[in-house]
Amino acid sequence: MNKRWQCVVKFVAMVGLFLLPCEAGAGEKSSSGAGKVKLQIEGSTTVGPIADAFAEVFSKKYPNVSITVKKTGSGDGAAALIDGRCDIATMSRFMKLKAFKKAIDRGVMPVAHVVAMDGVCVIVHPSNPISALTSRQVREIYKGKITNWKQLGGPDMKIVVISRDSSSGTYETFHKLVMKKQKMTSSVEYVSSNPQAYARVKTTPGAIGYVGLGFVDKNVKALKIDGVLPTRETIATGKYPISRPLFMFTNGYPRLGSIVHAFVTFHLTERGQEIIEAKGFVPLTNY
After folding, report:
1. Domain boundaries 118-236, CATH class
2. What tens digit of pLDDT does each residue of 187-221 get?
3. Is the pLDDT of residue 88 over 60?
4. Beta bridge partners of 120
5. 142 and 163 in contact (C-beta within 8 Å)?
6. Contact, 145 vs 186, CB < 8 A?
7. DSSP state of 228
8. Structure confidence at residue 35 (pLDDT)
9. Hey, where are the domains in the chain?
10. Is the pTM of this model over 0.90?
11. CA-to-CA distance for 180 and 106, rounded, in angstroms?
């Protein structure tokens, strides 16, 4: 992991250690208490597979807990936490300063829990002979400066540019680390989730898109970026240039013994780490 994200993870850990426990709704009831407990989770489509898998385990372990996981984007997760519509907001980026300020103004104290590491993988159709690009070349494609694969040594084929929508944490990471906050061309096709981006590239020979590591399989091809292929090792060490942590946010640090606390710390257990790895992401214990 590079120094930048080491600092982020250490900061988040320190915040969690020193914030006082805070009651935060129905999800804060004891995991062993009587009565039906509702746990509302909302946010990132990237973190969604982890949340879904955790929820499946918890539903079996705690039959009295009803868990709902909504995957509509990191921005929606932040809004739901601020509005009190969820107990846990899943996010593939850190909460924006504007949203954090809004939360504080409403009496909500967002606390971030880093649950895994991920890489934003630039993908193309498996039939595309291109296997590596530089960050600059990817940026020029998304700016509309490079429009045909033959300009990069590939076939004479129009490039179909796929992007996540601007409310996505994956978009935010790509916009910052690859685009350098420069505007994308008007011909970019926006989709609302990782599965949609994956499906579009999988079925379109000329397409290029980007997804989380957990959405890369034999049906799409992840490109080397600046000479580095996205793998668990290169993401864990920060060698891959588009690496990032994945978060679960709560309102205050959850009370010890609550179902919320158990859920947002499950990634630290052996079973939690196995699930994260099985879903194609990188456990924190890998670095």
Report:
1. alpha beta
2. 999 999 999 999 999 999 999 999 999 899 999 99
3. yes
4. 212
5. yes
6. no
7. B
8. 66
9. 3-117+245-286, 118-236
10. no
11. 32
129: left (phi over 0), alpha (psi -120 to 50) or beta: alpha
For the stretch 80-83, contacts whose Cβ atoms lie closer than 8 Å and that sit 24 or more positions apart, written own/partner, are: 80/40, 80/42, 80/43, 81/42, 81/108, 81/110, 81/249, 81/250, 81/251, 82/106, 82/108, 82/110
Q: For the residues of 123-142, what is the DSSP string, one character each?
A: EE-TT----EE-HHHHHHHH
């690859």: which residue's tokens? 178
Distance of CA 142 to the CA centre of its chain: 21
What Å distances lie between residue 50 and 77, 118, 224, 246, 277, CA to CA?
15, 12, 25, 10, 10
User: Own/partner pairs for 53-58, CB < 8 Å, 24+ apart?
Assistant: 53/275, 53/278, 53/279, 54/263, 54/266, 54/272, 54/275, 57/266, 57/271, 57/275, 58/259, 58/262, 58/263, 58/266
Q: Which DSSP helix (H) or strand (E) runs through 190? A: strand 189-191
For domain 3-117+245-286, give the CATH superfamily. Answer: Periplasmic binding protein-like II (3.40.190.10)
**Phi, psi at residue 185, to the nearest 5°?**
-65, 155
Asked whether the CA dihedral 178, 73, 83, 68 is positive or negative, the reply is negative
What's residue 260's pLDDT?
97
* Cα within 13 Å of Cα(122), Cβ side: 31
d(CA 45, CA 31): 26
Q: Which of 164, 88, 152 is nearest to 122 (CA)?
A: 164
Q: Beta partners for 89? A: 42, 249
3-117+245-286 and 118-236 agree in CATH topology: yes
